[in-house]
Amino acid sequence: MVIGKQGAHASNKECTNPSMRAAPSLSALLSFLSTCLHILQRRIIEKKQRRKRQELLMVQANTDAKVKGRHGRHKPEERIPLMESCSEHSLCNSECLRRGLVQECRTAGLRPDLSPSGESSIPLSLKVDDVEAFVLKPAPQGIVVQCRITRDRKGMDKGIFPFYYLHLETENGKKRFLMSGRKRKKSKTSNYLISLDPIDLSRDGDSFVGKVRSNVLGTKFTVFDNGINPDKKPFVPETAQLRQELVAICYETNVLGFRGPRKMTVIIPGMNSENERICIRPKNEHETLLTRYQNRNMQNLIKLQNKMPAWNEETQSYVLNFHGRVTQASVKNFQIISEEDPDYIVLQFGRVAPDVFTMDYQFPLCALQAFAICLSSFDGKLACE
Length: 385
Prior knowledge:
Distance between the termini: 74 Å
Protein name: Tubby-like protein
Strand order of the largest sheet: 4-5-6-7-8-9-10-11-12-15-16-17
InterPro entries: Tubby-like_C, Tubby_C, Tubby_C_CS, Tubby_N
Subcellular location: Cytoplasm; Secreted
Order of helices and strands: HHEEEHHHEHEEEEEEEHEEEEEEH
Structural class: alpha+beta
Low-confidence stretches: 1-16, 18-22, 64-100, 102-119
Domain Tubby N-terminal: 41-89
Number of strands: 17
GO biological process, one term: protein localization to cilium
Largest sheet: 12 strands, antiparallel, barrel
Helix content: 10-25%
Mean pLDDT: 75
């Protein structure tokens, strides 16, 4: 009986306290509003993407034979079907591989010993025993490494901060997971972490392999490995290595204004006589890839740029020949080439489904460099869009 009275007394006390009754309701309301906000943001992003895909100035795969220049002059081009092919200027042409990047490598103090025959994709004999070593090593000469990037936007957080997964494609149709990337939530500028683990994408995790950092406008990006920031060197062990700068990417407003294909400049370290990447470990801002490029100090550096698409009068759109590897129009579609040899496509990236993209790269890029460049293209750019 006493227990029953105490229980009744506690119940009456709970009912007569208005603040205790209101607390669960307020918490539920805040949770509901947060959910609605995430859903609204997700729908706005999806609506914007659907509208962008319908614009005429998206970069499309070239399926037409007659392409005209911007000033109305006809430039005949062979008819290229939207399927896998090895035409005169394709990624898998051996003559391009012999000529590719000769000038840049001479600048860096070497001439690449290119294979006499090229391959259309990564061979079955090339095994990936050590994933970390594979993603950091330049692609084998004469080989086009074909990969696929999948964007995961399911869930409230991933709708705004998606996860990206890179898989290696092999000739037998199988896929091998290589890396994942995600945008950090609490960063002053865009910052992407890259990991060898599909789940653990933390900065302090054992699988952390690199990161991508942008400026405030999202027009300049720098790619680092997992080394130590030189500003933090006094607080870490002496045995710790300073981080390498692997890539610098610059986006510029296109010549048409704020719509149409982007203009990209990519700066990467040069190669030594053993066809290995030269280590660039800046100790201060003056030694960074971006600063050296701005000061025209290109010693041991290679400059690449995106191939500008041609305007097609019949389809009223910009087109590039992706040789069947890209099937959907997108402002993110691009090809990275050498200035001296525009037929040598170092990196090719484009959409094949709403959240699926192909990524094909070859020497002198490594998988981490290629993946990081593609991640930078996903980021919003206030000055370029």
